[in-house]
């Protein structure tokens, strides 16, 4: 069975090794490939170029090496009748939990103030609220949002969540839909975006959202750059509505050197590393999807292309 592999170049060798070890009977071609795409049946991809997947008439399965699938669905030629499976992997979840806990602590311990004083060699102690005095609001209570919520709750933060459909979690108050958004935001002091990027969620981190949050709140964006309206965040930071932001994802990646977010004293920038898929653990999820395809079983992590996640 011919499989197309397109991932970050530095990971190609590790993905190939993992696939050959875990999935019998594969003929792997890597992108860019020379030759005929007509007999490729499975594509395991990150950011396939427009038209690539549509050029494969025998394609039976597409697996995203990322949890998000916006990098695939943004291609208007994507063949929606081919099953699309996304990445759900304990390693990816663990990485995200570590990052979000770190980011929440940076914000709640007001480390931007401490680091700024350090840069000026100033000894400026101040008291900060402890976790039980703060409410973290998580937008997107899916696989990653729920795991982060559990970890933050375990540290003592009050945690609330917002999702598209109603939820019922122990110890985590849940809000859903546009009706629930206002109530969710007015309680949220540290906002974590773990939404997928879809037409409904694009630009959700904008002026309307920041204005509904308490003054001096914090914003952590680990969803996608398309969720954030950067100039609205800068305006909210400059008027003190938002005190600090931790941003891992951007509209343009790498973040251009002249983007003002790089130099804002109350913005922490990281290069889309909140959680990185590692082939050695993620291969379990890929092998599972290929096995499901071969056996004709329902897919465990199937995406609904109309919902976009
Ligand atoms: P899931 O599909 O498991 O969860 C998505 C959540 O978002 C669900 O709770 C869903 O609601 C909610 N949601 C979707 N649309 C809406 C909407 N219109 N209004 C309100 N809630 C909505 O995704 P994951 O948790 O696995 O991943 C989330 C995202 O994290 C990915 O799509 C990706 O963009 C990002 N990510 C970023 C990484 C990084 O390194 N920065 C690494 C990995 C992922 P419901 O439960 O009701 O369906
Ligand atoms: C993902 C990502 O979606 O790495 O998994 O951003």
Question: Could you describe the 3D structure shown?
Answer:
It is built from nine helices and twelve strands. By secondary structure, the protein is α/β, with parallel strands linked by helices. Strand 1, helix 1 (about 10-20) and strand 2 form a beta-alpha-beta unit. Helix 1 packs across helix 9 (about 280-295) and helix 3 (about 90-110) packs across helix 5. The chain has a seven-stranded parallel beta sheet with strand order 8-7-6-9-10-11-12, with helices on both faces. A five-stranded parallel beta sheet has the order 2-1-3-4-5, covered by helices on one side. About 30% of the residues lie in helices and about 15% in strands. It is elongated, with a radius of gyration of 21 Å. The model has no long low-confidence stretch (mean pLDDT about 95). Oxalic acid (OXD) binds next to loops.
Quick overview:
The protein is built from 9 helices and 12 strands. By secondary structure, it is of the alpha/beta class. Helix 1 packs across helix 9 (279-295) and helix 3 (90-108) crosses helix 5 (143-154).
